[in-house]
Amino acid sequence: MIISYILTDSDTAARNITFSKELVQKGVEIGHETGETLRIINESAVRSMDMTEQIKTATAEQVQGVKLVTQSIEDVSAMASQIYNASKEQSEATKNILRSIESIKSMAVNVVRATEAQQRDGSEIEASVDSHMKTSEEMFATMELRRKQSSAVVEELEIMKGVSP
């Protein structure tokens, strides 16, 4: 009877050892599979980190580019504004010159009427003044055109400035 218990216990122990061995073997296989899965996850994480770093670098470069473009637009806008103001001042100066020429023309006409002896000379003065007046009017027209063009440039730049981030 003791032998029978020993045999039964030995048989149970052998089955338990076999079962434990199978469990350990499955655990080792799962460990290998888990290790391989973790290796793949680690490689993916490293690639993701590299991509994230590249995205970060590209984003920083893009931000710097946007800053440069914005600064350039602001610089061009300031220059266009200065050109516009200078054109406006030139236009006002030309108007003043035109008024002065008209005043001179009026004086010349009065001199012609008052002095018959200098009528011929007065006519030449009047022709000269007309020529200068025409030239001044052409200058004024040109300056006015420049002022309008400068205004258009300033408006375009303001639109561009409003569109940039």
What is the average per-residue confidence, as pLDDT, rounded to a whole number?
A: 83
How many whole angstroms does the radius of gyration measure?
48 Å
Order of helices and strands: HH
Q: What's the count of strands?
A: 0
Low-confidence stretches: none
The tally of helices reads: 2
Keywords:
165 residues, mainly alpha, rod-shaped
Briefly, what is this?
With 165 residues, this protein is mainly α. Helices cover 96% and strands 0% of the residues.
What would you say this structure looks like, in words?
The chain is mainly alpha-helical. The protein has one domain (2-163). Helix content is 96%, strand content 0%. It is built from two helices and no strands. The protein has helices at residues 2-114, 119-163. The longest helix has 113 residues, at 2-114. 2% of the residues are buried.
